[in-house]
Specification:
Layout (H helix, E strand, L loop, with lengths): L2 H7 L6 H25 L12 H18 L1 H5 L4 H20 L4 H6 L3 H15 L4 H9 L2 H15 L2 H9 L1 H23 L11 H9 L2 H13 L6 H4 L9 H33 L15 H4 L7
Length: about 300
């Protein structure tokens, strides 16, 4: 094996900020889940507060983030464009969906000690209240149209040659790229999944399908542009040692295909899942209402988290 490839595959970047963030959020969720499961008693079913899939999904999302940012994958992105594309898909599409599916807000709140939980709940409610200045701004910035634009703007914007090369040459810019892409992905899938905190009326399932499908054309267009380009677009990779005999142009074409086909298929899969829920009547079942669990009387329930 190429010595550079061997060194890259053996490299793990144990970043303290990522480790602390993952451990803190994971601990809060698991503690909150155990407390809410104790309160909800023996309720069963996929939608139950204590359903076992919820912490599993959330933990998987955190592990995907850790894998994307600390594993050899993060080292290989410096040599291979297609590895960078895989990393972006993990941060934009995979991790956010796994983190948001269990509706994490109630569990994270209940993971806090009693007084901190009450303070956090009150602070969040006052922050997003429809009459507050911050709440009004947040509602304007998180409408479906604005969220769709933010998602597409960040994906396409960071693939501008100047921005992309800058991210690869500067660790600070690279971290900013990952943070903004992840935030855009969280906003996008938060709108689709309709989880808390809810700033808008939950979209109907047909509207969610249209919202998801609308993200496919720009994603496919960018992927196709990369796949069919006859010359390297990102000069940074031209100066890097080539691994496994993959040329700069072939690497770029593979990256475009990954964005074009697997990337677009993720949107299709979510749209198909929403269609299945409509046909199965699942949409008529009530969702977990996070506002019940952020009310003062619930946040300080006797004997829980004190």
């Amino acid at each position: 094996m190429d010595p550079v490839a061997r060194a890259a595959l053996a490299s793990w970047d144990w970043r303290p900020e990522v480790i602390v963030g993952v451990l803190l959020l994971g601990t809060l969720f698991w503690v909150g889940w155990r407390r809410l499961r104790a309160i909800s008693g023996r309720s069963r079913g996929r939608r139950a507060l204590g359903a076992g899939w919820r912490p599993v999904s959330y933990t998987a999302g955190l592990l995907v983030i850790a894998l994307a940012l600390m594993s050899p994958l993060d080292v290989l992105v410096q040599q291979l464009f297609f590895m960078h594309m895989i990393q972006h898909l993990l941060l934009i599409m995979v991790a956010p969906v796994l983190l948001l599916l269990p509706n994490p807000l109630p569990y994270l709140l209940w993971g806090l000690p009693g007084r901190a939980r009450l303070a956090a709940g009150r602070g969040l409610n006052s922050l997003i209240h429809k009459e507050s200045a911050v709440g009004r701004v947040l509602r304007k910035m998180t409408g479906p149209g604005a969220v769709w634009f933010i998602m597409i703007a960040f994906i396409i914007g960071w693939h501008d040659p100047g921005m992309y090369n800058a991210a690869l040459r500067s660790e600070l810019v690279h971290d900013l790229e990952h943070l903004t892409m992840f935030a855009a992905g969280m906003l996008f899938w938060w709108t689709v999944l309709g989880v808390g905190p809810r700033l808008h009326k939950n979209l109907s399932r047909p509207a969610k399908i249209a919202f998801v499908i609308a993200a496919i054309p720009p994603n496919m267009a960018l992927g196709a542009a990369l796949a069919f380009s006859r010359q390297p677009i990102y000069t940074y990779y031209s100066d890097m040692p080539r691994l496994w005999g993959i040329s700069v142009l072939d690497d770029q074409r593979l990256s475009g295909i990954i964005m074009w086909i697997p990337g677009s298929m993720m949107y299709f899969m979510i749209a198909l899942a929403l269609i299945f829920l409509i046909l199965s009547g699942e949409g008529r079942k009530p969702a977990l209402d996070q506002e019940i669990w952020s009310a003062d009387e619930s946040l300080i329930a006797p004997g829980v988290g004190r």
